[in-house]
């Protein structure tokens, strides 16, 4: 009515109300009346945005790779962005221009610029495996970009979903990888077989070493046994020689003892013979009759025997001799 209109924004929009080229009011989620002929309204979206991107680059070996990912960002200085891009809205709250697409394209271009120099230094295989480094390069490039700072944008993060080669090259890499894996598998089989053969060789070598050690031990035992037997034989021989020597010494001593005893007995016999001869020498010239008479121990029978002897010596002188039985009985019985 008469050019006055009402407009309302949500809380995620930062509103700038320009009146005659001067900011009349600003803030988030405003709702107000304005005079359309002299007003211009700018609405900056404040929420975070996920910007997907996909672009192609060439590697150092002239192979094409496709980089796919997304950039998360949000507008932290809406007035700075309003000075760079036109986010003017109509009376119905619709943007007059699609500046969001322009903003996204600028961010994508900066991301690609941050990536291209890095990708150009890598070969295809390294580029496919460098997703994390690409993320780091894009994030650092965007955060250090003067354009991003002038537009009042904060980069929340960068994610790389895929780094892919062309289908033909991917199949070639798959074939190469498959062949390499097959080769590695064959090498693994060969290594396992070689390891098994080596282990078998070691086992046989160990068994042979064990047998050699056993034979050596048996040889040592046999030699030790022979040495023991020889030593025992030598000890037995030594013992026998010692015994024979001892027996000879004993027999020698016994012979010497016998000789000494014989000599002593001979000397003793000679002494006794000499003593006896010396003792009997005075009686040797004496008449036995006198000796008999001197024997004070001569009994009646002895005297009778002497008498009979005298009779026998003088028998030629005796004519007749009568001996009574009683006398003989007395002589024989001693009664």
Automatic annotation (TrEMBL):
Subcellular location: Membrane
Keyword Protein biosynthesis: no
Record organism: Rhizosphaericola mali
Biological processes per GO annotation: proteolysis
Source lineage: Bacteria, Pseudomonadati, Bacteroidota, Chitinophagia, Chitinophagales
Alphabetized Gene3D superfamilies for the sequence: Band 7 domain
Keywords, alphabetical: Coiled coil, Hydrolase, Protease
Name of this protein: Membrane protease subunit, stomatin/prohibitin
Band domain sequence ranges: 18-192
Chain segments annotated as coiled-coil in the UniProt record: 205-270
